Amino acid sequence: MAEFTFYTVAMSRGQISRWALHEAGADYEQVVFDFATRPDHFTDINPMNKVPALVHHHGAHDHVITEAAAINHYLAETHPDAGLLPDTHEKAAYFRWLFFAAGPLEQAVVAQAMDWKVPQERVGMAGFGSLELALSAMESWLSDNDFAAGSRFTMADTYVGSQFIWGLRFGSIPEAPAFRAYVDRVTNRSAYSEANAIDAKLIDEG
Ligand SMILES: N[C@@H](CCC(=O)N[C@@H](CS)C(=O)NCC(=O)O)C(=O)O
């Protein structure tokens, strides 16, 4: 049995974690389905009934992990030799932007896609403030730094990068030179191409 079982749907946020599996060089088997045919009892694994979900078969234990950002960081932790964890000096930026992308940035993008409006007088109550504010924070970082944690690719880039890959592709994040250059940098990697090719083939076979 492989060390990890990966539950995914080809056209989904599962792509974010497949990229991480390939960056880490993880030994995984996949359970691919579509939303109409989720495996029986999938909610035992993820009560949210959402993908991605990962099970780590660890000795006598099966550890379940959900949430793409958490899965990706978990894979970096369980594969330290892959060199995807931040060093002492990169750690602050690594966690800052990983959590920022999974929280405020994603919420801001989804709020815009759903056309949810935050009344101006209540912007302070919304953790993401506004999409403009969240993007301007990221733009300022990515104008001065090549990657989420600083000057080198780390696992945070699989998640932060995915937000920008998808955002620019679907127009939910506006074009900006810093965002486009960042997407070009993070996608120019063999693990990204490998993972992307698997999901592209699954989508084609659809
Ligand atoms: N916060 C979750 C979001 C996961 C999520 O919403 N996945 C979608 C696919 S992109 C899903 O499984 N939707 C099916 C459903 O909710 O029924 C994560 O980052 O992993």
TrEMBL record:
Residues 1-83 form the GST N-terminal domain. Coiled coil: none annotated. InterPro entries: Glutathione-S-Trfase_C-like (IPR010987), Glutathione_S-Trfase (IPR040079), Glutathione_S-Trfase_N (IPR004045), GST_C (IPR004046). CDD domains: GST_C_8, GST_N_GTT1_like. Transmembrane segments: none annotated. Pfam families: GST_C, GST_N. Residues 87-206 form the GST C-terminal domain. Belongs to the GST superfamily. PANTHER family: GLUTATHIONE S-TRANSFERASE FAMILY PROTEIN (PTHR44051:SF21), GLUTATHIONE S-TRANSFERASE-RELATED (PTHR44051). This is Glutathione S-transferase family protein. The lineage of its organism: Bacteria, Pseudomonadati, Pseudomonadota, Alphaproteobacteria, Sphingomonadales.
